[in-house]
Amino acid sequence: MNNRFSITSYVGFYFCFLCYVYLDYISIFFISEGFRSSFNFFKFIESFILVLVLGFLIPITRVTVGSFFSTILFLFVFIPIAVLFSCADSSRYAFYSAFSPALFIMFCTNYLSNKNLNFTVPHIKKSYTMGIYLISSIIALFIAKIIFSGSILNLNFDISKVYDVREEQTGLLYDGVWGYLTNWSVKVFSICAIILSLYRKKYYVFIMLIVLQFVFFGVTTHKSTFFYAIMAVGTYFLSMRYDANIKIVKYSIVAITASFLLAVIFDNVIVGSFALRRAIFVPAYLHYVYFDFFTDNQFVYWSNSALSSFIDYPYHENTARVIGSYLGKPSMAANNGFIASGYMHAGLFGVAFYSFSLFLVLFFLDYFRKNLPVNVIVAFSVAPIISVLTSSDLVTSLLTHGLLIMLLFVYLLSSNPTGKN
Hints:
The chain is mainly alpha-helical. Helices cover 71% and strands 0% of the residues. It has helices spanning 2-29, 41-55, 65-87, 92-113, 127-148, 162-173, 178-199, 203-220, 223-238, 244-265, 269-296, 319-326, 338-367, 374-390, 394-399, 403-413. The termini are far apart.
């Protein structure tokens, strides 16, 4: 009971502190980006109560794949949306359209965290060995692509210059089928290799793979390439603890507080813009923008992807650019997570469908916790799952961001939990 009271108190503090950060910093320095200040006391109380309700659902005695990611969903998707609901007087309709999926996923994963999944998925013979060979082969193939395409000549580790070479590197590394293979190589295969080397205590291999991932960042020019590797290693160690969900809340408070102090005391615009504005509040802001736009305009009904052969796409450019143009920034690709993209496709039905689909993904991953440690599965899946939660359509994540490939490799690698191969 003390732990339950503590985590609920931490969650309440986290919400209130984010409200303060938004009102005292974000809405002042980034008002031109659409972050207006319009505090509504009654909405604050309303959202505060619902935040505490969801906080009460966080499992405190056992961590599973589902409970870990549902806690991430709660802290970094729902709570920032709740902050804008109360501090920017945003739409109640859009707010509750986020609350319902969060409640559903957190309730279901909390329930499953106390259950043993007693059913069997048949394994392919020697699937672990097959998985290892596939990972090694595709990483080697990607290295060859880097060398023979000439993209290695544009190697760049200067973050301030990534956009200067990105267009050329995109043409060299993301052409044709490599549009998928490059993403899978840096977000799935290399991450799996890094975590497996750590799990098997092959520390020299681990160091070599981390260096290789840094090289991948230098040639792809996407900061997320190296960031996801660091995040995977961090979640590997964090999620091995039985109280990982409590630690996520505590570490989030520490990270937000440190970022805020760095931004204010040292006038660090980079920290303020990236760690606070971009990582925390931009996805929440775009959530409301998506709901505002698609409430008054045509839904997409997956006519830009799975149903393109059956339904005419209603817009002249991709939806991320459509939202960018709606914001007065035609060059902006305004992507958002599964809730907003579900609404974009089919309204509340799309939100419900995507929420249930994400739950099934987490359920599938949790099944393999009896064969692979939870922390290994979490680290394998952190990059594509975070994309689904914050910045990508679920269908796009399944293919482009490697969610489907990651599910396949968790299945293959879980056949050999003892590591004798």
